[in-house]
Structures are given as C-alpha cells and as structure tokens.
Amino acid sequence: MSFSERQDNYLQRINDCLENAVPPPTSTPRRLHEAMRYAVLNGGKRIRPLLVYAAGECLHVAPAKLDAPATAIELIHAFSLVHDDLPAMDDDELRRGEPTVHVKFDEATAILAADALQPLAFATLAAGQELTDRQKANLVSLIAAACGSTGMTGGQSIDLDAEGKTLNEMQIRQMHELKTGALIRASVMSACYLAEAVSTEELTALDRFATAIGLAFQIRDDILDVEGETGVIGKTAGADQSRNKATWPSVFGLEASREDCNTLLHDGLTELERFGERADALRYLARLIVEREQ
Questions:
Q1: C-alpha distance from residue 51 to each of 20, 57, 155, 184 (Å)
Q2: Residue 164 burial (CB count, 10 A)
Q3: Backbone phi, then psi, for 160, in 5-degree steps?
Q4: Which of 236, 268, 279, 281 has its CA 20 to 30 A from that of 66?
C-alpha cells in the first residue's frame, strides 16, 4: 500500500488525537473551548503531523509513539494561525475557506484560544504514555525552540517588520526558515528523537531534507498568494501584495520562485536517497508540498 493510500488512516488518526486533546465545547469556559475547537478541527491539510508519521516510517518508529508529537505540533500550528490572522498581525478574514477565529467569535476570544492551545500542546507531550521522560524532555525542547523567538514567533516578528521593505536573499531566507520552516523541521526531527537507532549521517540527511522542504513550503505559499484563487487556497488571494509584504516572488519574481521551489525539492529528495524505500512517504509529502494548489 502506497503512502497516498495510507494517508487517510493517518489523517483519521491525527484528527482523533486532536479531537481528544481539545476540551469539549460543553465544558466551562464554553465559548473559549468552542473557539479552540474551531481553530483546530475546522479543516486543514495536516501536513506537519503527516511529516511526523512519514519520518517515523523512515526510522521504524511505531505510530503510537508519534501521536503525542504529531498532536502537539498541529496544536502549535493552529495557535500560530489564530495569532497570524489577528488584526494586529496579518488581519485576515478567511482561513481554510471559513471565517477566521477572531471573525467567527471575537478578537479577545481568538487571543485567548490561541494562548490556550500553546500550553495544551506541551501538556499533550507531557501526558504521552508511550514516551519516556527523556523523550518528553527532548521533544519539549525541540518544539519549544521551533515555536519561540528563534523559531516561528521570531519569523513572524521579522515578517511584520519587513512590510514595505526590500529584503535580500539572506534576510528573506532567514524569515521563511524561521516562520514556516522551523516547525516543519521539528515535525521531521521529532521522529529522530524517538528512533531506537539513527546514525549521525541519517540525522544530518533528515535535517537537511526538512530544512529544504520547509523553505519550499513557504515559497509555494508565496506563489499561491500571487496566482491562486481565494476559493481554492481558502484564504484571501493577493493579501501579501496588498499589505506590501516581503515575499519570495516580490524579491525574485514568479518564474525564479518556481525554479527555486523545484531546486529545493530536488535537494531535499537527494538527501533521502540513503534511506531507499523507507523514505517513500517523505518523498510523497515533499512533492505534495511543492505541487499543491492550496
């Protein structure tokens, strides 16, 4: 069975984990829990948890051990989207084809929902019954770094500061690698922290793969903002340009952006050659990231 066929099983698995992780809407405070569930369970491609499970296949890590990091990373991702969409940030009204959390509820509730999702992610790791204490500590360190000031949050700060400015290649690469790439890298590397035996060469190869694909993911996002349609991509097309944001196409142009995306895909796939068929799931997701239309 190919990974494209197994994908549905993993999607059902992660959605069940997320459903169980977020408090029910009937529990107090109800409005907050409703907003949290809306942010997490209202669609999404689940690329990051799929990368966790795919890397686990590559390193022979059982899915049960991967549930906690896959869930935690998706909760962190959801938290970041709620904050990114706020009027003080990107001021977006659509996410996944539906009203953003602050539009559906209100701005204060959206802030609180995101604030609650972040500690819930780490609580999920702490409660992971399949993980040793050492594994929990390592995963907390990995994911905290990926979402903190030297990771995703720092990347968002650079992004906001860059509006109306022209960045050079080094600056925009750093912004993308922090804002989007850091959590994608953590998705892949989390499986390495749980593998029984992984060589230094394998760790380096997976790290390089994840870094390349994380950057490609954000470049593809930038391209879709230019040439995608709102009804397809699920958010307002052209929003980056209207806010005069620094994006890969705004610096290098669309054609060069497509070429860079394909080059990064090639580089990432090259890093997987040492794993043979074990990395087929990662290859599938890498191509999906670069070729997606939403």
A1: 21, 10, 21, 8
A2: 9
A3: -65, -40
A4: 268
CA 59 to chain centroid, in Å, comes to 21
Interatomic CA distance for residues 220 and 177, integer angstroms: 13
Token pair recorded at residue 247: 């994006």
| Closest by CA position to 282, among listed 63, 67, 65, 57 | 57
According to DSSP, residue 245 is labeled -
User: pTM of the full predicted structure?
Assistant: 0.95
- Going by their DSSP bridges, the two strands 94-95 and 98-99 should be labelled as antiparallel
- Residue labelled with tokens 């995306």: 261
- The tens digit of pLDDT for each residue in 173-189 reads 999 999 999 999 999 99
Q: Identify whether the C-beta of residue 128 lies closer than 8 Å to the C-beta of residue 68.
A: yes
Residue 204 CB: number of other CB atoms within 10 A? Answer: 11
**Domain residue ranges of the chain, discontinuous segments joined by +:** 3-291
For 3-291, which CATH superfamily applies?
Answer: Farnesyl Diphosphate Synthase (1.10.600.10)
- For 98, phi and psi rounded to 5 degrees? -125, 165
Nearest-angstrom CA–CA distance, 98 and 223: 21
Closest to 58 (Cα-Cα) out of 154, 183, 200, 202: 202
Q: Which two tokens stand for residue 36?
A: 């949290």
Q: Which residues contact 136 (CB under 8 A, 6 or more apart)?
A: 125, 126, 128
